[in-house]
Amino acid sequence: MRFLMTTKPSDAPPDENLHVEMAKFVEELTAAGVLLATGGLEPGGVRVASAGDEITVTDGPFTEAKEAVAGFALVEVRSKEEAIEITRRFRAIVGDGESVIQQVFGP
Fold it and tell me: Which end of the chain has fewer beta carbons closer than 10 Å to its terminal beta carbon, N or C?
C-alpha cells in the first residue's frame, strides 16, 4: 500500500539537531525500501482552477499559507497503521505541527 504523507509549514525555525535526526530517519526508511520519494515544496506555487470552459491561473503565495503543504513523503508499507507509525516518528523529530496521510490508489 502506498501513502502520501504531507506536512504543513511550522513557525519554529529548524535547528541543527533536526537536520541530523531527519537525515538518519530518511536514511533508515530508504534502506528499508519504504521511502519512495520525499521533498520540500515551494511556499507559493501556482493554482490552476477550472469552471466550465474557463481556466484560471493564479500565482502564489496565497493568503492562507498555513494551509499550504510544505513537504511530502511517498511511502510503500503493509498497512495504514504502519504509515501512521512512520508519521508519528516524523512528528516526534520535527515537533509541533500537522501532517496528513492519504492512501495512493492505482498502479
Answer: C
Domains with residue ranges and CATH for the chain: 2-104 (3.30.70.1060)
For 104, residues 6+ apart whose C-beta sits below 8 A from its C-beta are: 2, 3, 4, 74
Gyration radius of the chain over CA positions: 16
Eight-state DSSP code of residue 32: T
pLDDT at position 56:
94
Q: pTM score, two decimals?
A: 0.83
Is 66 buried (19+), middle (13-18) or exposed (0-12) by CB count in 10 A?
Answer: exposed
